[in-house]
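We give this protein:

***
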Amino acid sequence: MSSIKFIPPQTGEVDKYTTRANRQDPFWLLVKDTFILIKNLRFLPLLFLPWKSEAEKNQSAASTTGKKQNPFSSFLNLGVQILLTLLELIFLILFIPALISLPGIIFFAAAFLCFLLIKLITWPTQGPRILLSNMDTHTSQLAAQHQDEKWIFINGICTGTSGLQENIDRLSLLFGRSVTGVHNRSYGPIGDIVECILQRCLDYKTMDVRVAFEVVKNVLMEGGTKKVVLVAHSQGGIVVSMVLDELFCEVPAEVIAKL
C-alpha cells in the first residue's frame, strides 16, 4: 500500500496546519474578527475604486455575448452600495448608545425596522438566486463539446444580480463552458462583512449557503456529470467551504472526486 504525503505535514504543533476557526473558541473568534473589522473600516471606501475599469467596454457597456448591457443596473447597484454604507455606518455608531439608553423592546423594534429598511433598499438589485451564463455562438459550440462538465460560480460581497450575470458571462467566454451562477446576495459592504464574520466564527449557514449546497449536490449526483468545477470569489469562498463541509458528510467519496 502506497504512503500518502500531506502538504503541509499534519503532525506536530496544531496551530501550524489548522485554521483558527477549528481550534479557538467561537466567541473569542467573533470578538477578534469584530475588532479587525473596526480597525479596517477606514479602508471601506476602497471597495468602490477604481470608478472606471480598463475593460469597461467588456464589463459594463457590452456583455460577452455581444448584447448591450443596461448600464443603469451597474449604476443602481453602485448607488445602493454607497447608500447602504452610509446607513450602516450610522447604525454602527448609534448601536451601543441605543442599546444602553433604550428600553429593550424599543431597541429590538428599532433594530428590526433597520433590518427591514436594508432589505427594502437592496430589493431592486436582487433577482433570481440561480442564473445561467449567456453565450455567443462560438462559446455555445465549445460548451456543447463538454456537456459532462458543470461549472458553478458563487460571487463575493457587494454584488447584485447584474454583477453576477456579468461575472458568469465573462467566465463562460474565458473557459468556453456554460456557467451556473449562485447569487450570494448583498446587504451592503458592512452587512456583508458582518455576515462573513458570523459565517467564519459561528458556522452560520445563510440561505445562500443552503441554495449553493442544493445546486452543487444535485449536479454531483447527476449520472452524466464527470467533472464539476467550483469557482468562488471573496465571501463566495466561505460559502463554498461550508458547502463542502456538508457534502463530505452526505456524498460518497467517488462522487466528491468529481470536484
In short: The radius of gyration is 21 Å. The first strand starts at residue 130 and ends at 132.
